[in-house]
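[job 4471] stage=fold_predict status=RUNNING
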Amino acid sequence: MTSTTSTTLRAALAIRDLDFAHPGGLRLKVPSLRLEARGEMLLAGPSGSGKSTLLSLVAGLLEPQGGRIEIAGEDILSRRGAARDRLRGERLGMIFQTFNLLAGFTAAENVMLAMLFAERPRATHRARSEALLRSLGIEEFDRPIEHLSVGQQQRVAVARALAVGPSLVLADEPTASLDPENAEKVVELIRGTCREEGAALLLTSHDPDLRRSFERVVDVREFAAGGGGEDAR
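[job 4471] inference complete, writing structure tokens
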């Protein structure tokens, strides 16, 4: 194996020559973007600048006009259908602004559902779910998700994102509806859990206060303008 291939495999995310044109007018051009294993990156920019679009591209939920997106060395864009779903399920964790938890299911069941596409023996799903929830302060495993507080639901969403032991966690504006004090707590919860689980984190936010706490900050407007995407404070 060449050193170049080995380096690629170590990266949680590697984007090259990505080109995406949205019918509504947004254009993203990403010559190169790389996030090492266990690394952290804040993708910054105002609302509507393309942060969520870029995360959707990384997750393989949108199709670009060209380019390559590697998740832990695997090109997600080269996969189709069930093969792409499987790669997404095994290598990616996703935290949504609105949680996207399933009503009528318990906290544990919401976490276990994330493991359906992963190659984890089904007999281990319950124990893995409970261990993650417990580590995040949730002991009511069998309580329906709609009966939990908003803060508890957020923790369940974090547990679900880490359930499969992903290489990369994508967190899309997880603090958008929170006051500054609670926003800081949620970000530290997500970052701390990713570190404990060995996952890299790509988090989007339009909150300028978050820039001070991340070593790597990339402003998505650099890509929207067709620039080089240099790290920007």
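[job 4471] summary: The radius of gyration is 17 Å.
[job 4471] exit 0
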